[in-house]
């Protein structure tokens, strides 16, 4: 008798829990616009939650890198849309966009440029351009602000300048060693000009030397 009552009570409790959980799940998932009962709904992004700062100003973008990132979601491989961006983070000239997937609701971190290690290529290129042009951080940020591109951090540029400077020194040293070896090699081999001068000097000496007849 007690066992039957307990089984009935557990069955009723499970049914109530499932109904409440399902209703809560519907409400929660419905607000996000993700998958509902096997059907795919296009998410409606809440403007109060999404960050629209990525729409302001301009960005430096490597088109191939951006196209590859937008070609498929990192979770479901369905193409993602740039208009579904919900946030952004700037790393010097580079930018990482947080893009919502319409199919699975995953957030994809899409970078606007390539990296070597943990450093973005465009930031190193900027530091190298500063050294080449002989300008400082203030001048660079003045140019960027005129172009409506977010300013870059002074510390970041100094680090990238040190990185670029080391690379330039290594290339210069390697080039100097190569040119020195080529010069030594050329000095060891008689050139055509040297041989011509040697023949001309020999002929001149022969003409100046009197011939003695016996």
Task: Give a verbal description of the structure.
Residues 1-19 form the signal peptide. It comes from Dreissena polymorpha (Zebra mussel). This is Mutator-like transposase domain-containing protein. Residues 57-187 form the Mutator-like transposase domain. Pfam families: Mutator. With 214 residues, this protein is mainly alpha-helical. The chain has three domains: 1-32; 39-113, no CATH class; 118-189, no CATH class. Helix content is 53%, strand content 11%. The strands form two sheets. It has a three-stranded antiparallel beta sheet, covered by helices on one side. The longest helix has 35 residues, at 154-188. The protein is elongated. Mean pLDDT is 74; it is low at 22-49.
Give the SSE map.
Layout: H1 2-32, H2 63-70, E1 85-91, E2 94-100, E3 107-111, E4 115-116, E5 119-120, H3 121-133, H4 137-146, H5 154-188, H6 192-208
Antiparallel strand pairs: 1-2, 2-3, 4-5
Domain Mutator-like transposase: 57-187
Signal peptide: 1-19
Keywords: Signal
3D shape: elongated
Uncertain stretches of 5 or more adjacent residues? 22-49
Helix content: 40-55%
How big is the Rg?
Answer: 36 Å
Distance between the termini: 154 Å
Q: How would you classify the helix and strand content by structural class?
A: mainly alpha
The description of the largest β-sheet is: 3 strands, antiparallel
**Overall residue-averaged pLDDT value:** 74
Order of helices and strands: HHEEEEEHHHH
Helix count from the secondary structure assignment: 6
Keywords: Signal
Protein name: Mutator-like transposase domain-containing protein
Domain Mutator-like transposase: 57-187
Signal peptide: 1-19
């Amino acid at each position: 008798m007690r066992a039957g009552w307990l089984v009935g009570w557990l069955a009723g409790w499970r049914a109530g829990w499932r109904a409440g959980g399902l209703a809560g799940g519907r409400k929660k998932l419905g607000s996000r616009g993700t998958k509902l009962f096997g059907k795919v709904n296009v998410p409606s992004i809440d403007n109060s939650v999404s960050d629209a700062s990525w729409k302001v100003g301009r960005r430096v973008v490597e088109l191939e890198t951006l196209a590859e990132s937008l070609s498929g979601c990192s979770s479901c491989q369905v193409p993602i849309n740039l208009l579904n961006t919900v946030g952004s983070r700037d790393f010097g000239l580079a930018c990482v966009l947080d893009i919502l997937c319409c199919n699975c609701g995953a957030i994809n971190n899409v970078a606007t440029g390539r990296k070597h290690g943990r450093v973005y290529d465009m930031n190193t290129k900027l530091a190298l351009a500063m050294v080449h042009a002989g300008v400082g951080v203030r001048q660079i940020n003045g140019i960027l602000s005129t172009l409506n591109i977010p300013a870059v951090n002074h510390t970041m540029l100094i680090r990238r300048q040190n990185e670029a400077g080391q690379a330039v020194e290594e290339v210069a040293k390697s080039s100097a060693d190569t040119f020195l070896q080529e010069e030594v090699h050329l000095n060891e081999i008689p050139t055509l000009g040297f041989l011509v001068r040697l023949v001309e000097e020999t002929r001149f000496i022969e003409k100046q030397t009197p011939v003695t007849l016996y």
